[in-house]
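Hi R.,

As promised, here are both runs. First protein below:
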Amino acid sequence: MAKEICTMNPPLRSPWIGTALRAAMARLRGRFETNRRDRERRDAFLNLLRLDDQILDDIGVTRAEVARAARLPLRLNASDALAAKAHARRKGGIG
């Protein structure tokens, strides 16, 4: 029995499909990497809650300010928000 050889050519794909898929995967990888970095930064920020109130006072922030900043969305930098809040409080602004 002779082997049958398939002589059909596979359907041609547009070259832009591979390019578009690679670009989409690169964007997805970038988003995952950004999320991972944001989570690591927030985990480090949460260590402030382990400090006692005297040390937080020496730093110039309150426990409530730290807790409020920790509840911000991950895409926002909690350290920057905390610093702005503490600066405003020291300047006599928002308390």
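And here is the second one, sequence first, then its structure tokens:
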Amino acid sequence: MANSIDEVYERFLDDDEHILWSKEPDRIRLHLDGGCISVVMIIAFSGYGIFSLITAHNTAVDWVMGGLFVLIGLMFLLVSVKRTAAYYVTDKRVLILGSLSVKELKYYDIAYVNVEKQKKGSLGNVVMLKSKLVRNGHSRTRNSTVYTGYTLFDLEDAERVKELILQQKDMPRAYAKAEEIEQYQR
């Protein structure tokens, strides 16, 4: 199923790994991750910083504080914006290849998969949660689970991708690996 575009990303695959589904970004799109909270924080910090700079009384403290709030607002913006990436579903994992990062989700780590339909058009997003058991040496329970979210944006066949991920997750080797990790963590 690999085509010439997929060959560019072959270096990220293991020798015995095969691409089951892939999507290259057709154009660069930005997505705001974090929803309303991110928007409110960006507007609040940047707005207050700009207001402080406009109304500054020519003291160094006013300029520094205004500039600091603008920088914090820009930081929220940079952290919240996700760029469209290349997505690969293989027989071993899900790969998200961004312009600056490579993220991988092994099937045995995926705790949740769902599809969010977009309001306009037939596109959807596949949302996944990766779970990781963390040992806390000083707590009563000593273990806690940390979830990290990952999203595959703007997919025309989001339902199919979800089903493909769930099928691979249900494969015997994923169960065996999950059991092995669980035994190790006890």
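A quick note on the second one: The longest strand covers residues 143-155. Let me know what you think.

Best,
J.
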